[in-house]
Amino acid sequence: MCQSITRVGPSAAIAVAVIAGACGGSDPAPVAGVEATDGVVVEVLVTGLDGPTQLADHPDGRLLLGELAGGESEGVGRVVAIDLDTVAAENEVGREVLVDGLLKPTGVAAVGDELWIMEERTLSRGPLDGSGARTIVLDDLPFNGRSESTLTPTGDGTLLYATSGSLAGGQVRAGSGVLWEHDPATGSTPISAGFKNAYGHAIGPDGRLWATEVSDGSFDGEPAPDELVAVSPGVDHGWPACIGDRTPVVEFGGDGAICGDGPGSQAVFDPGATPTSVAIAPWDPDLLVVALWLERRIVTVPTDPAGAPHEPIDLLTDDGSEGFRPQHLLADGDRLLVVDFEGERILGLTSDGG
After folding, report:
1. What is the CA radius of gyration of the chain?
2. What is the largest CA-CA distance in the chain?
3. How far from 74 is each of 68, 70, 78, 102, 291, CA to CA, in Å?
4. How far is the C-alpha of 86 from the C-alpha of 93, rounded, in Å?
5. Alpha-carbon separation of residue 258 from 172, 221, 227, 237, 240 (angstroms)
6. Which of 276, 265, 322 is nearest to 298 (CA)?
7. pTM for the whole thing?
8. Which tens digit of pLDDT belongs to each residue from 131-150?
């Protein structure tokens, strides 16, 4: 017999739902709010979140999650640790607030024994358990008026972040629109420039670095498309002179010669699609998965450079019954974890072919 067990946790009524998959050969029950492509199974893992942003691995097996916990600029954000497997006393799910009082925490990461947090314009570090004082590493970072990017550990003791691009007098502000690698011992080094907002990042098993580009704004009077790109270290990716797949922007000095020699797009999305995250598909190392926040869908894109830009293929879409906003993606073994911002939950995706 298939069962659905919901364990309610402390404080914010967070819950972990253990949902039986295909029991006795039957099809798994559909998950409200989303439609999955054939061969993909969706389950609800966590509900009752509060403005969830980035999800990251904790060294002890738990998950780290940033939450706005209020309005974007209210300064009440926090980072929590969630245990999907261990149930505490009285059947309560392990959940711990590590840091609170944060201004728009869009990035969280564990590097060594430290918790790193990206707020609106500030990168900080402190003990993983939330005890003791935090150290401001970088402050007053250049940004686009809203926020910086997510954080991505490299596995070599460093992490990636991006400063969102902004203009002053038609020129890119110094230090903005750059993808950086930060070494806790030596500081930040630019990897590549020419981005409006390289918000999400992923490192493939072959070492290639991928980034989403949220290119909001108008250029030559037209809205700019969003992108998925293979990052070319040391190379300017073109913004604002070039947008989309090498499209010149005359008002910012772009032309065919400049843009034609620049890096191309792995995929191009409609203006305003808002790709907030990219991950390697756990079931296929040659497949990228991208969360399109505003379009309420998750798509796949091949890693093969031949034939790029590729047409994205739907993996998970909004079914129209209730809000679904895919915010962040995190590979977890053979499943993909999906932070649903509007549904305030975490979903798990697996593939029949995985």
Report:
1. 20
2. 67
3. 9, 7, 12, 9, 26
4. 7
5. 17, 20, 19, 11, 12
6. 276
7. 0.91
8. 989 999 999 999 988 889 99
